[in-house]
Amino acid sequence: MKVGAKNRKQLVIMSALLALALVVFSRNVLNVGASTPTPVAEKTAAVEEERGRQTASLHNSLDPSIRLDLLRSSESTEYKGNGRNIFKSMPEIPQPVQSPITRPQVTVITKPPPPPINLKFYGFASSSSGPKQVFLSQGDDIFIAKEGDIVDRRYKVIHIGPTSVDVEDVLENNTQPIPLTQGPVPGQGPGA
After folding, report:
1. Which of 50, 51, 101, 171 has a 20 to 30 A CA-CA distance from 185?
2. In this structure, is residue 156 part of a structural domain?
């Protein structure tokens, strides 16, 4: 491999930098050639001497007499622990208490049954050309209805059969059959 003038110049610079790095590394890390004490040690000694002077002045300013008032206040202090034994490193693990197994009471909330439909069958009305109609009564009121009609703004006549009328309570969403038996006519019969 040929080394040109340009490469030779770079090689010399690289060698010089490597030698300088070895010298710095050996002085700082390996302490080779370090025969004189470092100035840091001198600063450390000066700092220690200053601390010693401050401690001596602090000890000279303390009153060596016993202060009984401070001792009395510390004697009246009572230890109120939290139940832990301070002379044991680990707290005792309490044993689990066996409690009888009780099953929670299950209360089943059922929806109350829908209120009964208070309509009574009163009679039929039929014609040859029109739909079958039924008369329904509630108290003193009489209603005429055919299939699909709403009676008393609450009850819908679903189906008129040969033995019963199916009526739906629109407010409660409940369907009940009303048997086709003729009830007493108001103003007639017993008790009138």
Report:
1. 171
2. yes
